[in-house]
Every structure is written in structure tokens, then in C-alpha cells.
Specification:
- The chain has five helices and three strands; from the N terminus they run ααβααββα.
- With about 110 residues, the protein is of the alpha+beta class.
- It has a three-stranded antiparallel sheet with strand order 1-3-2.
- α1 runs antiparallel to α4 and α2 packs across α4.
- The protein is elongated, with a radius of gyration of 20 Å.
């Protein structure tokens, strides 16, 4: 049913990562341009360590990648990860639409019988 046939734990990691507003904001920023972790930390009213933990969660969910460049760790958005989330949501929407279609069919049958 699910397009990617992702394992449940991978799906959990993906949506748990996206469930946090700061992490969604980090994903949006790094999809537009690369950021160093310290550059990201400057954008938020939280410690560098806290931002680093958010980046680690996103990295485990395959929504970002981190690359060591000199003394900096550069964070880059992973379009494939975002597309996986979209495909999963599309699958859920398809299931929901099929239910709505069945309900409409049942209601139409009832009207035909009255």
C-alpha cells in the first residue's frame, strides 16, 4: 500500500523529525542553501548543542546530510527525504479519498432505493 514500503521505524523517524517546528524550519532553510551548524545556531534562541541535536534527528530521518568541511559541519537538505514524506502523505490521502468515494456510492445507492 505504501509506495516506498518503508519500515515502520523509518516512517516514525521521518514524521517525528518533522513534528517539531524548529526542525521543520531547519529543513526549509537548508533546502534553500547550505548552512554550517554554527550558522544555523545563530538563527535560533537556543544553544549550539540544542541545534546540533535537532540536526542529528533530521540526519537520522534522512532529511538532511552533514559534511565536515574544514572546522565546520555543513548541513544540506535532502530532497529525497522530503519526497518520501510527500509520497507517504499522498498514499494516506488516496486511502482517505477511496473511503469518501465508497461513502458517496453507498449514499447514491440509498437514494436510488427511496
Amino acid at each position: 500500500m505504501v509506495v516506498d514500503q518503508m519500515q515502520d521505524d523509518a516512517v516514525d523517524r521521518l514524521f517525528q523529525a518533522l513534528a517539531d517546528a524548529t526542525r521543520r524550519d531547519i529543513v526549509a532553510r537548508v533546502l534553500v542553501a547550505e548552512y554550517s551548524v554554527s550558522g544555523l545556531a545563530e538563527q535560533y534562541a537556543m544553544s549550539f548543542a540544542a541545534v546540533q541535536k535537532h540536526v542529528a534527528v533530521l540526519e537520522r530521518a534522512s532529511l538532511v546530510t552533514k559534511e565536515k568541511r574544514g572546522r565546520e559541519q555543513i548541513v544540506r537538505g535532502e530532497v529525497d527525504g522530503v519526497q518520501r514524506a510527500r509520497r507517504l502523505l499522498d498514499d494516506y490521502e488516496r486511502i482517505w479519498r477511496q473511503r469518501v468515494d465508497r461513502i458517496e456510492d453507498i449514499l447514491a445507492e440509498d437514494e436510488d432505493h427511496t
